[in-house]
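Sat 14:20. Reprocessing the chain from the morning session after the first attempt stalled halfway. Input below, unchanged.
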Amino acid sequence: MLKVIIGFIAGIALLGIVGFNTAGSFMMVEHESPFGIEETAARIQANIQKMEHRGWTLSGLRDPSKAVANSGRNVPPVLLVEACSTDYSGVLLADDNARILSILMPCTITVYKKDDGKTYIGTMNSGLMGKLFGKKVASIMVEVAKDQAEFLKFDPNEPAPPLIKVKPGSGGAGGPETSGC
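Finished this time. Tokens:
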């Protein structure tokens, strides 16, 4: 009986250690892009604009690697494409218990280069993240995850769209009064 109890406790401890060490890889998803950084970001932006019927607008384009370079350090390029859907954010912002999730707004997709020279896209696993905050948030974040998947679908036969240099907080296509979300 003692061996069973010790085995059970050891199993729980092992599960906890494995879970702790792998949780981050479940929350963030990385995809390799067939295009360079600016073209990938531009294609994501174009796909977001195609989703205006779901409330999506571009709310910013940031380049954190530029700030790092300005401080004297050299890092590979990184672009942050920011978008928000008022269809989803409005429901969350209207709820006192969900309003704290505004920290996740706008939706940010990162496009970056690694030392292997390839371009990657990073997203939050919205569907899984939503499940952590209850049924209402989960149902919204499942829809966000579906839309995010559409943002990352590229047709290599289509010409590359121009990169839209939206300043964060400018409200994207919605004008400065919308502040992006």
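The first helix runs from residue 2 to 27.
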